[in-house]
């Protein structure tokens, strides 16, 4: 199978290169326009291919490029692809925002890693910890969606997703809209916002004179325990005092209508903004 990997020298492209390059069933053309990305590839003795040459023989084109660039890149790229080519996205935003041209003779597939689950990694954090998965250490699940194209192409996309994000815990088939609900609406707009508040709360403890390392050890230890309890891993509930603290402060911290962030109108607005080119403003 001939694969064109756009953005091969970038953050995600580098991870995919490391996983797919050793596999003999794939012939990969590495496409990278940035000097820093080209330098990283050269350090691995990987030769960059011109995009025109790469797509001329591609069975699959992987879009390992920023969401904001996908609209412009695919407007130029997709008309040149051979019929039957699979356009493989790594995030649902561009597909859900409909910024890519849709050709009826192409297949559009989206896959996104879930990242290694918190409660299967028993090793302490260190500089080598794999926080994103796909480095041959911790298994992770992946969500996959066949956005457009024949049903028989799903197996091809799922196999490629499993190989690029290996080792795999579970593979889930969902729709692009469901994937967009998970990200950005759940894990970025909601969960990352909550995590940001958690860090700011820890910073407040330090501001009140608590030594930073003491505050960090206390907060990170409690975060792990609280997540285990709330998500049902611990097998026991929070204390009555902790439950009362949540009841008293939930509305102080969160507005009653916070779930509107996960509504479909808010989701559509969010993905359109993610895919928009922001010129420093």
How would you explain this protein's 3D organization?
The chain has ten helices and seven strands. It has helices at 11-20, 35-43, 51-56, 67-77, 93-96, 154-164, 176-207, 212-230, 240-253, 264-274, and strands spanning 2-6, 27-31, 60-63, 86-89, 107-113, 140-148, 168-173. It has a seven-stranded mixed sheet with strand order 2-1-3-4-5-6-7. β3 (60-63), α4 (67-77) and β4 form a beta-alpha-beta unit.
The CATH architecture category of the largest domain equals 3-Layer(aba) Sandwich
How would you classify the helix and strand content by structural class? alpha/beta
β-strand number: 7
Taken together, the total number of domains comes to: 2
Total DSSP helices: 10
Instruction: State the CATH topology of the largest domain.
Output: Rossmann fold
Main β-sheet, in a few words?
7 strands, mixed
Bin the helical content: 40-55%
Backbone CA Rg: 21 Å
Q: Low-confidence segments, ≥5 residues, pLDDT <50?
A: none
Distance between the termini: 42 Å
CATH class of the largest domain: Alpha Beta
- β content, as a range? 5-15%
């Amino acid at each position: 199978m001939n694969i064109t990997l756009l953005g091969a020298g970038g953050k995600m492209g580098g991870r995919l290169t490391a996983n797919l390059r050793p596999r003999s069933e794939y012939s990969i053309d590495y496409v990278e326009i940035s000097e820093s990305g080209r330098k990283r590839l050269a350090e691995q003795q990987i030769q960059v291919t011109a995009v025109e040459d790469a797509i001329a023989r591609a069975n699959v084109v992987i879009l390992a490029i920023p969401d904001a660039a996908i609209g412009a890149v695919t407007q130029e790229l997709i008309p040149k692809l051979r019929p039957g080519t699979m356009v493989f996205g790594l995030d649902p935003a561009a597909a859900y925002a409909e910024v890519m041209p849709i050709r009826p003779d192409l297949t559009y597939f989206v896959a996104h890693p879930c990242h290694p689950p918190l409660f299967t990694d028993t090793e302490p954090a260190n500089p080598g910890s794999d926080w994103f998965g796909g480095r041959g250490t911790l298994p992770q699940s992946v969500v996959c969606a066949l956005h457009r194209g024949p049903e028989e192409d799903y197996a091809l996309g799922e196999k490629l997703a499993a190989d690029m994000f290996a080792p795999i815990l579970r593979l889930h088939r969902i729709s692009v809209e469901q994937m967009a609900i998970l990200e950005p609406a759940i894990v970025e707009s909601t969960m990352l916002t909550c995590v940001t508040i958690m860090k700011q709360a820890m910073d407040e403890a330090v501001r009140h004179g608590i030594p930073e390392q003491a505050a960090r050890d206390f907060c990170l230890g409690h975060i792990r325990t609280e997540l285990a309890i709330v998500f049902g891993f611990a097998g026991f509930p929070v204390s009555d005092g902790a439950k009362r603290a949540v009841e008293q402060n939930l509305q102080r911290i969160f507005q009653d209508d916070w779930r509107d962030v996960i509504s479909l109108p808010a989701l559509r607005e969010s993905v359109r903004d993610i895919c928009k080119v922001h010129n420093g403003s």
